[in-house]
């Protein structure tokens, strides 16, 4: 990981939407109870960095991008017409703790990857991103797919591989405790979460925790 003070860094927040409040649709138990606090902490750190950078002559802001899923299946909890049960809140709306600022782009996707049907790749390349932090829901679906595509597309201009030390894997970072998932088939949520992250770490991304990311990427120079 590198400091956002010296390396153009992007933070992507995937599918943190009201639909995931549904009490039964996703399964009885979600992994990572600290997910909300951690993703909020990362977003807060990135915004604080940007506020500080705006006050200097040669700013190096973080590109903060929100990706929202709009399902084309009428029965999906993430269909644009769906509401959070017992409320009038549209399920595609963002969770309160990650409400986008007007300066933060919101991209809408219809499949698992944040790169399909959006201009995410073009935005990252135009920004000159040298580091990409990925967070959100769910670990094994849209986070996993987006991370793998980011590596395969070489969106950071890193030639698609590690730097030889294992610390520069594609310049992509997954904050393991700022992602979460649900049970799949006979596997509990924690197992699905852990196995997905293990399959990404060292080949497609560096998997680190929120405290490490904040300290290294957003810490004082």
From TrEMBL:
InterPro entries listed in its UniProt record: Isochorismatase-like_dom, Isochorismatase-like_hydrls, Isochorismatase-like_sf
Molecular-function GO term, any one: hydrolase activity
Coiled-coil ranges per UniProt: none
Keywords attached to this entry: Hydrolase
SUPFAM superfamilies: Isochorismatase-like hydrolases
Pfam families per UniProt: Isochorismatase
Start and end residues of each Isochorismatase-like domain: 9-205
Family statement drawn from the similarity comment of this UniProt entry: Belongs to the isochorismatase family.
PANTHER family: ISOCHORISMATASE HYDROLASE, PEROXYUREIDOACRYLATE/UREIDOACRYLATE AMIDOHYDROLASE-RELATED
Designated name of the protein: Isochorismatase-like domain-containing protein
């Amino acid at each position: 990981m590198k400091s956002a003070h010296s390396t153009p860094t992007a933070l992507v927040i995937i599918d943190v939407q009201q639909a995931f409040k549904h009490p039964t649709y996703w399964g009885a138990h979600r992994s990572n109870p600290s997910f909300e606090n951690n993703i909020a902490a990362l977003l807060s750190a990135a915004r604080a960095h940007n506020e500080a950078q705006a006050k200097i002559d040669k700013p190096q802001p973080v590109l903060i991008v929100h990706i929202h899923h709009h399902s084309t299946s009428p029965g999906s909890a993430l269909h644009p017409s769906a509401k959070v049960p017992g409320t009038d809140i549209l399920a595609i709306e963002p969770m309160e703790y990650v409400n986008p600022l007007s300066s933060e782009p919101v991209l809408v996707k219809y499949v698992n990857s944040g790169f399909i049907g959006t201009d995410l790749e073009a935005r990252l390349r135009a920004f000159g991103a040298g580091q990409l932090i990925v967070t959100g829901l769910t670990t094994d679906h849209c986070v996993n797919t987006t991370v793998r595509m980011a590596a395969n597309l070489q969106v950071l201009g890193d030639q698609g591989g590690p730097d030889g030390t294992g610390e520069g894997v594609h310049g992509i970072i997954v904050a393991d405790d700022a992602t979460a998932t649900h049970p799949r088939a006979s596997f509990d949520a924690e197992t699905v979460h852990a196995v997905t992250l293990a399959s990404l770490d060292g080949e497609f991304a560096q998997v680190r925790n929120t405290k490490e990311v904040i300290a290294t990427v957003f810490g004082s120079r």
